[in-house]
Design brief:
Layout: H1 4-10, H2 12-18, H3 27-48, H4 52-61, H5 68-80, E1 84-85, E2 88-89, H6 91-104, H7 111-123, H8 133-165
Antiparallel strand pairs: 1-2
Helix pairs in contact: 1-2, 1-3, 2-7, 2-8, 3-5, 5-8, 6-7, 7-8
């Protein structure tokens, strides 16, 4: 595990988009980011009453929790990292957070940034005005997970097409 766990913890959607970068930030900086993310995750877990099992399942499976507590955990982390304000997802803040992380791993000009930008843009309007912060966070996260899966599938098809004809 490394610094992108912070992204993972704050919003499952960003975690799915950033997963390829996980191994690229390590050493003291990676350890510091991981420590900070785990502290924030622990604080939000306690504040929302989310169980350790549910947190583990979320991280291991990249699935959005279905319980109210689990959804509020995602909202708490998103608010902690500034990607949700007043119960609404902020695409600008999410992209800024992603850019900060990508800069640390030297991927600012890579395709990863474009993929993250696509997920954020596509999912920034997920949810409805009548949803509370927990429901909104879960809706954005579900969208992000689905969009990330679509992109991984497309990349897989591109690679297999290239290898067949290359």
């Amino acid at each position: 595990m490394s610094a992108p766990l912070a992204v993972a913890s704050l919003l499952v959607a960003l975690m799915a988009a950033c997963a390829p970068a996980e191994a690229q930030l390590n050493g003291a900086e990676g350890a510091g980011e991981l420590f900070k993310a785990l502290n924030n995750l622990g604080r939000c877990r306690e504040a929302t009453g989310t169980t350790e099992d549910e947190v583990r399942r979320m991280i291991e499976t990249h699935r959005v929790p279905t319980s109210r507590n689990g959804q509020c955990l995602i909202a708490c982390m998103a608010e902690t990292y500034g990607v949700m304000r007043e119960g609404r997802f902020s695409a600008d803040a999410a992209m800024q957070l992603a850019d900060n992380m990508l800069q640390k791993i030297g991927q600012m000009s890579g395709s990863l940034r474009g993929e993250i930008q696509h997920v954020i843009k596509t999912c920034s309007s997920a949810g409805t005005p009548d949803m509370d912060a927990c429901e909104t966070a879960a809706s954005v996260a579900n969208c992000g997970v689905e969009e990330s899966r679509k992109m991984r599938t497309m990349r897989g098809h591109e690679r297999s097409s290239i290898s067949r004809f290359g």
